[in-house]
């Protein structure tokens, strides 16, 4: 696991943007795994800026998002379909036929989940999976207790996650209880993973992911098993790491400069 610590959120986002751009340039037909949430918005802005400056093209790329709320149609204002269109898809040269999210409004969400997993496999698997982390250690919507061997399926959201996401809905009651999410094992199948976390509110979850025991109590800790996992943090998100000075010595300035 590479732990790259940057001074502030802006520097962390730029570093994450460098990593995504590097992957897309190295393989124009890359398959990207995409995430939603507040942390990702400035990363999408960064990628759009590189695209607008003529430095980056997504024309050959295929994308798969991590998750979608069960019950929300793609045009629902709080759906992740809508989020992705506004934050990224409508702003870059992606071929929309190659952008994928699970449909939350289907009659058979479990069937949709299984089909989504199949579509990822048919596309050749994910080259770079971008991730955020929930305050309770979730990745995608793999909440604590998610099996580390899990595949795309329906998950019940914890009240903590629903409270965190309530800001997008009119009330807690209206915040969905279920989501379709790709599984922990699906995430581990990606050839590389990049997790971005900013702000002190994520510090405890980050410490459990990087330094805690491998445990379904913190699904993000499964990334310890991944042979090519990069964690990009700002100082706030890194503030509970016991070995912080070690990571800063190995990767000064958040540069990927040494072996670890
Ligand atoms: O960036 P945020 O809004 O804190 O969300 C963190 C994580 O939680 C989710 O929004 C799901 O609750 C993920 O998509 C995201 O990676």
TrEMBL record:
Please list the residue ranges annotated as the Glucosamine/galactosamine-6-phosphate isomerase domain.
Answer: 13-225
Q: What class of enzyme is it?
A: hydrolase
Sorted alphabetically, which keywords does the UniProt record give?
Carbohydrate metabolism, Hydrolase
**Keyword Signal listed:** no
The residues annotated as the active site are: 67, 136, 138, 143
What residue ranges carry the coiled-coil annotation? none
**GO cellular component term of the entry, any:** cytoplasm
Top-rank lineage group of the source organism: Bacteria
Q: Please tell me whether the keyword Hydrolase is annotated for this protein.
A: yes
Gene Ontology biological process terms, A to Z: carbohydrate metabolic process; glucosamine catabolic process; N-acetylglucosamine catabolic process; N-acetylneuraminate catabolic process
GO terms, molecular function: glucosamine-6-phosphate deaminase activity; identical protein binding
Q: Where does this protein act, in terms of pathway?
A: Amino-sugar metabolism; N-acetylneuraminate degradation; D-fructose 6-phosphate from N-acetylneuraminate: step 5/5
- EC number, as in UniProt: 3.5.99.6
- Which reaction does this enzyme catalyse, per its entry? alpha-D-glucosamine 6-phosphate + H2O = beta-D-fructose 6-phosphate + NH4(+)
NCBIfam families noted in UniProt? nagB (TIGR00502)
PANTHER family, per the entry: GLUCOSAMINE-6-PHOSPHATE ISOMERASE
Family statement drawn from the similarity comment of this UniProt entry: Belongs to the glucosamine/galactosamine-6-phosphate isomerase family. NagB subfamily.
User: Briefly, what is this protein's role?
Assistant: Catalyzes the reversible isomerization-deamination of glucosamine 6-phosphate (GlcN6P) to form fructose 6-phosphate (Fru6P) and ammonium ion.
The identity of this protein, by name, is Glucosamine-6-phosphate deaminase
